[in-house]
Each structure stands twice: as structure tokens, then as C-alpha cells.
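Narrative progress, year one. The postdoctoral researcher (J.K.) led the effort to move from monomer predictions toward full complexes, under supervision of the PI. The following entry was the first complex the group processed end to end, covering 746 residues in total.
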Amino acid sequence: MRIAIKNGLVIDPANKIEKKLDLYIENDKIVALGKSPNGFAADQQIDASGKYIFPGIIDLCARLREPGLEHQASIVSETKAAAAAGITTLCQPPDTNPIADTNAVIELIHQQSEHAGYATVLPIGALTQKLEGKQLSEMAALKEAGCVALANVFPMQDTVVLRRSLEYAATHDLTVFLTPQDYNLSLDGCAHEGAVASRLGLPGIPSAAETMAVGRDLALIEEVGVKAHFYHLSTSRATQMIARAQYDGHAISCDAAAHQLFLTEFDLSDFDSNCHVIPPLRTERDKEGLRHGIKNNTISSICSNHEPWDADDKAMPFCATEAGISGLQTLLPLTMKLVEEKVLTLSEAIARLTSGPASILNINSGSLSLGALADVCIYDPNIEWQLTPDSLISLGHNTPFIDWYFKGKVIQTLHAGKIVFQEHL
Amino acid sequence: MSAQLDSNGRLKHFLSIDGLNPSILTEILDTAESFNALPEQSVKKVPLLRGKTIVNLFFEASTRTRTTFELAAKRLSADVLNINIEASATAKGETLLDTLRTIEAMHIDMFIIRHARSGAAHFIAKHVLPHVSVINAGDGRHAHPTQAMLDMFTIRRHKPEFGGLCVAIIGDILHSRVARSQIQALNMLGIGEVRIIGPKTLIPAEHQTMGVQVYHKLEEGIKDADVVIMLRLQKERMQGAMLPSEGEYFRLYGLTEEKLQAAKDDAIVMHPGPINRGVEMDSQVADGSRSVILQQVSHGIAIRMAVMSMAMQQASHAESN
């Protein structure tokens, strides 16, 4: 199968390209950009006049609920939603059921996602067995099974185990994803400890829960010399601490969830359980600090932190509800809003969704380089639309962004050279 | 929080002071005034809510709040159903929403809700049938608005000029739904100065946004106060490193006749009850001439009658339209 995508504006931050160029795909690979290869006869030609063409998005954190919670969502349902949102690679954290601490679980996830065919799913392996923070997982075996990184998801309490797991991961050249959240300071909390939690009487999680964990983990990372990544920052202060560590030359990266760049503690005001997220929505200053960190590339990835939940799981008093937002379908729209709001340039926005996360994972995707897997997103920057429950493909309808207006929409997504999503206008 | 008022500005639900306005609060106080003399008459009932069914739905133990709500409903001639759930239904696996739907199917007109989770009353108000009213009888640490209004009523009966008053609230502000509602009501009604007094472990974050002055020393905080409100200290606060001991708490924040000297000579002393004698205050103060604690209890009935009748009036207006 040969596809030619003609006349689109190609945005490929990995190769510093932002130019009107034609893109040529043969089977699952990109074979040319600009000039047609000799003797290339397209089976399908896509006219992308007035459209943007950029690499498929890489989402560093999305829970697909499989294995374990298939009544909530599945790899099929959520990767289908991802494809519609221009996402072609998703990293699933290891807190599935069973926990992703054996190669059997990793293989299952690979098989299911390949069978579904909408996107690549990269399972993040468990750093410790059963994620209990006590015994190291079989990291070498997980790596052989195809894990690109490991995570513990829940805050690690035992610093000796944490240190040894970092050392052992470094031995196998595995990147470790850390959850910057102090266990004790965040134990009962469900909202940022600030003005709104004080007014609503919600148990708070102080900013220090994050900065303390970052401080502690940085000390260990610097000593061990492991490649480390911090999941979902929520405070301005932690962003500055990581910027400093990066400046000092340590191999440290971090991400922010898209919703943290738009919502604050004030969005909780009527106990909207769709705004119950961990880490919690913090202050306007934190939001600005995160945006600043995104701009200067301290935070090199924006992710969805997708957590689909049933309506029942959100239909309770605020703190009793499950935390999380169904975020796949707002990842790109919110990131593009940062361009509209002149926080990022177009190329920076695409970089935070493609080349940024690719370099964190050290994988050969997130670009339109010759020979790269043909994961491509075709985007119409002029379509105006509103997010409605009907427009959600994810089985999780738990989003506070219902009724928001967006400008720009994915119209086609290609994964490994196949069209996996086509917008019917 | 405007979900509490209907499109004509009438009280539909009573969930928190936050989101209401001074004229509604004054209306509640004035209406309560008209009910307050009722117990002295030979017939203590009025037929305002005849034929209405009110459900006291309590997910948390309560004696005085539940009984005063029950008595208030009965004095308004309503039928009252008391349901104490205290986690038993949740142990059987029923969700809060299912419990609500089940009781709602019995054609009730009003829920009085107490629940251990902040936001529970708002949650229920969002999910009830359109003609049903919800009154918050305490949700987690969030709000206890009828308690706050009976306190305002008590203050007004003793000190009607709110503008120049100084009110000091002492104790565990952090975990107190009573304090949150009191602070909002005091500010909304234009009280001159609201102070909160306690150790930093019991003062909420960003307290400067709450419209209060913070003091850590009792003697300084109650200096020249017109009203001194003591809060109940939950026993479990001794765990979790909130406080070192009851002894040290009483020594620093317990109210004694001697410490009360710093307040104005005609200051009144209040407490939402039940009192831990020797922890929050000395018996001498609790039973002393400046204590209005028992008045608070009887005012509670008048306030609850006022709120229930206003919410049901709104419902009948809505029906006739």
C-alpha cells in the first residue's frame, strides 16, 4: 500500500521542519518527504491542502483498564478513542489487574493492542513486585518482554527499596517513572490544600507533598545516575526544582497532564467530582508555573493522564469518588489551545506531544523521519467544535471539559501506514 | 452554590451559607423569631407543613441536631421519618444514590441530610426529584448551616447591632463544619470582626481568604470580644499528632472564668454542644451567667422550623406556577 499526502503543512519538530511538503508512505514506513521517490505510484492520494501534517501523538500515561477492569473500558475501546484524537502511541502504567510485573501481562497487552490495531501500546512495567514497594521486580525479564520504562505508580515509602530499585533499573539501562507524591502528606487528601479546600472542608494535599518527594527522589537520582522521569507535576515549585537538576546536567525529565494547564482549585467550587484528580488541581500560580515549564521545555511532554471511569464511580460525594479525568480526546485540543493563547508556538506544541515524549522513552517514533513508522496525524486547524458526551469515543465520560469549544480537529490518523481514523464531515 | 435558590431568589435547598445572600439570612432570622414564642403557647403546633413528609436521613450519629429537626418538623405538622444509616446500608453494598432513590420512591417532600463526607448534601441536592428540598444537617468538614443560623439568632437576641461586634471562635477550626458556616454567616451579616483562635495544626490553610483574623493565644484573641464561641474538640484529634494532650489543650485554649476576663464584661459564651467539660471549657463558665448554651438549643428548633417552612413555601409556589 502506497499513500501520498499532498499539499499539507508538515510540522515535524524532531527534524525542525515546518513547511508545506508532500509525504510519501509505503507499507508501514515513511519513505519520502518533499519529492516523490522514483517510480512511486500512490494507491491512495490524500489532499491535505490547508491541513497540518504531524507525527502521531505519544501519550506518556493512559489507563486503558485492560487487563482487570474491562467492564469500564478496554484496549480496543480506548485505543479507538486515541486514534480519533491523533494519538498513535500510549504508555499504560503498571497498575492493571494483574499488575504488570511479569512478562505474561506485558505480552497480553502487546497482543491485545496489536490485535486492535489502532495504536501502539507500550506497557510500563512495575518497578517492584505487585507495586508494593518491597521487592524488586524482574526488571531484566520485563525489558526483554518489551518494557521501555518502569514505574511504581504509588508513592514509595521505603527509601532503601527505592534506591536499590533505581540502581537495579540503571544496571539494565531502564528509565524509571516516578510519582512525585509523599505518601503520608497525601494519604487522606483529595484536593489542593488551599483556599478552596479550606472553604469546602475537603481534606487537603499540600504542595509540599510534591516538592518533598521531588527533593527526596532527586537526591537519590543524582547519586545513582539513573534515567528518571517524573509523572504529572502539579506545582510551580517542583517544576523549578527539576529545571535546576536538568541545568546541573542530570538525565531527568517530567510531564504535565493537559488538564493541569487549564484548571485550578477553583474548578472544584461546586464539588464537581470530574475535577477530582491526583495530583490535585492547584493554584493559578501553579498553573502559570507549569505553563512556563512547558514553554522552556523543562516539562518536555504533555500527557492525558487518561483515567476512564463509570458514571457510578463519580456519583458520590467528592472525596469518595475515584480520581481521574477521561483525557485522551482533550489532549491535543487543549495543547492547541496553548498555541491559541500564545503560550506555545505551533512547533513547540507538537514537540511536547511527539518528539518530547519520544526522547523520554528513547523510542524511534514521534517524527516523520525517513524510515520511521508511518504514524501520522492530519489536522484541520479551522474546524470549530464543541465537546459533547456524544462526541466521546472513550467509554469514560468523566471529563470537566464537556461544553468547551475548540478550534481545530484531527481528520485522519494513520498508524503504521493504515488509516485508523477518518473524520466524517 | 446558587443551586440553593430558585429563579425567583427563594430558598429551595439549604446546603451552605456560601452562595446565599444577606437578605435570605435575615429572612431566616426573622421567620425564626415568629416561631420562637410558640413553645410558650398551650398548643405548640402550626399547620404550615400539614401533609408533607420529611425524612431525617442521618449517615452519622447525632442527638441534638436530629431531635431538634424532628421536633421542628412536628411543630410544623409534617410527618417525619427518621432513618439512621451509619454505614449499615453501605456495608450491604448499596450506594448513596440507590439509598436516596429508594426513599424518594416513598413520595417524600424533604430530606434532612447528615453525612461524614464534605459535599454530600450538595451531591444529594443535585440528584433529587425537582420538587424535593434538601437541608444540610452537617456534611463532613464542610458546612452546618442551620447550626450557624441558630448561633446568629442567639447573637442577634443578645447583641442586635452586628456592625460593631467582635466574635471570637476558639478551637478546632480545621475540622469544623460549624466554624466554616459561622464564619461565612458572620461575614455575610456584616459582623465587625471575626477572629479564630487555635494552634496552627487546627487552623485551615489560606485562612486569610476566609475573612478572619487568626490568633494563636487565647488571651489575645478574646480581648474585648463581644461573643466567645467555643468549638467541640473531637477526641480523635489527640491521635494524628494534631495536639499533644487534652491537658495542654485545656491549659492553652480551655475557657476559664479567669481567661474570660479579657473579653468584654457583657460578652456571651456559646458552644454548639456537646461540651467536653474540662477540655474546651470549665464547668463554671459552661454553667455561668454569661453562657447562652442552652438557649442555643431551643433557638435551634425555631431556626429549623424557619428553614423548613421557607423551603416548602418555595415548593408550593413552584407547584402553583
